[in-house]
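User: Quick one: structure for sequence A, then sequence B.

Assistant: Sequence A:
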Amino acid sequence: MPSPDFDLLMMRRALDLARLGTGHTRPNPLVGCVITHDNRIIGEGWHQAYGGPHAEVNAVAAVADPTLLPHSRVYVTLEPCSHHGKTPPCADLLIEKGVREVVVCNLDPNPLVAGKGIEKLRAAGIRVETGVLEQEGRWLNRRFFTFQEKQRPYVVLKWAETADGYLAGPYYQSVPISGELARVAVHQWRAEEQAILVGTRTALHDNPHLTVREWPGPNPTRVVIDKNLSLPPAHNLFNGQQPTVVYTYRERAAKDNVDYVMLSEAEDLFPQIFNSLYQRNVQSVLVEGGPTVLNSLLKDGLWDELRVLRSSRQLGGGVSAPKPGLSGLREHCRLGDDELFVYVN
């Protein structure tokens, strides 16, 4: 039996492998798998893309000598699936290969799995351990867990502010605040989230593309709040280059890769938006809106993670950044000339 320290080391390796799928597996979770024999790794893999082979399949395929599998110990970051989806059940694969020991980080909250994979493995005589590095696994797959457990996307708020607390110039004009490293980080964040949301004023004054240009990765779905359909049709958001969803109180037909969703004025705005995104299978959303959008979400507690980029630059006046007065600081670091503060709700 391997030592507890060895189990932790192998599960950390599996989590590192899982992370390599960031931005490519959604709405599936990030999953990594390591297979060991006599305390050495004989195979490893991760879920690389939605619709592609799962982590266990890739790890088993990487084992040079399959005769070792019945004497191996498998480490996987999420409970092996037990149902037919895009691919066959991974629990069945491990049973077929004669594996005798499986160590699992997190149980799968998806109702299609939800413990059934563990039950199937144990019914086949496989020894299963669960909960190894459970909190680390939940953080890695926080988008997936939030989507499954709360039936809404994982919401990341982001803004950049000057040292004296401003987001923009006096008339909402866009001014350079962050440095180069911070701008690259923002494009990385865009690639990691499934959707990106802005309000009317930000869309109007900044005319953003909301694309990933300074980091390799997929463009997120653009989400725009335009209650009265007042944004100019020539704006970049309507160029049709990526899927765009406009939430409005007015009816308009979809056109040129832009979908219009009419909301009820009698109901709260953001619960309607997040429910609509959930129905569209959107697992996470990065909010790059202005103070009206940000303050509304902060006030209602409708957020999961907050990233504030603070510049050393002074503006002397303008549109004030939110002042949430939060605890729950998870990370504080420097990105070039800027500071990054990450909070969790």
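Sequence B:
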Amino acid sequence: MTIFSGNTPAEMKIPEIPTAVHCGNNHLISIDTVLEGDQIVGLCFVFMVEDQPQSLSRKSSELPMKRLERIIRFGDSQQTVHTALGAPSKIYYKSDEKMLIQRGSNSENLKDEDKPDFFFNYFTMGVVG
């Protein structure tokens, strides 16, 4: 769902969102594919985060926002994803074979040690990985 201002769809513009609404979460601007030749090898995230102030006397609702661009390649380690995007909203742990749907149709070819035991949910950015 998108909330916009304007009288007609041609005049549509997305309203500014107050910084206080983010509550320390990343605010996604866009996600684009990263291509090498004609193969998709990752995703490029552009998002806003609260910038750390020099003085700690400011209230959290007054923190300035900073624009970041990060590239995540398919197969990156969990440390790389955490460093680029920050901590996920939630981590879901594998309870049984139902989680194999996350690996796609090639999951039967994976060895047990290659199968993921968890996946990340970046809810505020609309991403599960």
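The CA atoms of residues 2 and 14 lie 8 Å apart. DSSP finds one helix and six strands in the chain.

User: Thanks, that's what I needed.
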